[in-house]
Amino acid sequence: MHAWPASEVPALPGQGRDLRIHDTATGDLVTLAPGPVARIYVCGITPYDATHMGHAATYNAFDLVQRVWLDTKRQVHYVQNVTDVDDPLLERAVRDDVDWTALAEKETALFREDMTALRMLPPRHYIGAVEAIPGIVPLVERLRDAGAAYELEGDTYFSVEADPHFGGVSHLDAAAMRLLSAERGGDPDRPGKKNPLDPMLWMAAREGEPSWDGASLGRGRPGWHIECVAIALDHLGMGFDVQGGGSDLAFPHHEMGASHAQALTGEFPMAKAYVHAGMVGLDGEKMSKSKGNLVFVSALRREGVDPAAIRLALLAHHYRSDWEWTDQVLRDAVARLERWRAAVSRPDGPPAEALVDEIREALANDLDSPAALDAVDRWAALQQESGGTDEGAPGVVSRAVDALMGVAL
Fold this sequence. Notes:
CATH architecture of the domain at 306-405: Up-down Bundle
Oligomer: single chain
Largest sheet: 5 strands, parallel
Radius of gyration: 22 Å
Number of helices: 13
Order of helices and strands: EEEHEHHEHEEHEEHEHEEEHHEHHHH
CATH topology of the domain at 306-405: Four Helix Bundle (Hemerythrin (Met), subunit A)
Structural class: alpha/beta
């Protein structure tokens, strides 16, 4: 599966700072100091309704992570999956009376278009669940053969008790885990499971649903969590720098994925930091496909909204905060974009070196994009009030905003 084209990232003078970011597993800010190549895995979409503003906010956050790392003169090895076979996708295809593969391809293509428009840097490896199946099956067999998985009526489940570190990502109690498991794709009430929280690794073929050869597992399809584990281990290995996604993935997805990988390898941890973006709401509720209260990037683009304004609307909120999309949020972003473009269109301006330093400092401090926007606002206001004598300043600002925040002025 191919990703989307990369926009050029301008080179800036000097060098950025190492990233301090909130790690869900420790509950603290941690300083990440990767080697020459920083490794990041971000969970991708299930392609049946893309790209809504919640998606965009999540991928904006991890795009900032990449840009901070690139500014430290590192390379970035970024991997993202596409869950192109799963219950929600199959259910939507039945509801709309369309072929599930056609639906997945259509929505994945639209997602690529939106990511391109928003200037999100693409992953080096963009892998679909279906194409990952040949690598998933052996992992499930290894877990089974090691006693970390078991069969139940043809399905194969992971035993959470096989990982002594289980619970170390989300730190939830058993009752909260059971509740979230039921809400987020698990089946804690299924009779016969060793532990209600045990997640499915391989679902035996169901009538009328797609299935693949699972070797000794029989025909079926993979569970959600093992999909990401197989892709991450194949392309990044254990101990990669950041596992990212929305806050609703901390449990069960990232918790279970970490346990799968740790049971498979005997190594800990799967990722050095588990980083989660907040939820975006609309009309007082979390924006979600199940509720249908979605604002789509593609719809805004069709209405003529500049993608740079959409990006500024996302950047106006700290990535870990939960916030609500409103018409005013978009109006504010459009107005900010106009001010900034007017400021950098002049032939000279106030010196910009301190501004670049402020942006770098803000983003290295747990991706504080609102502080970075405020810094540019102050420079633009000074430019409007009194101008300046530095002929290179507007160009420096324009390049810095593009390189560090992905906004093309």
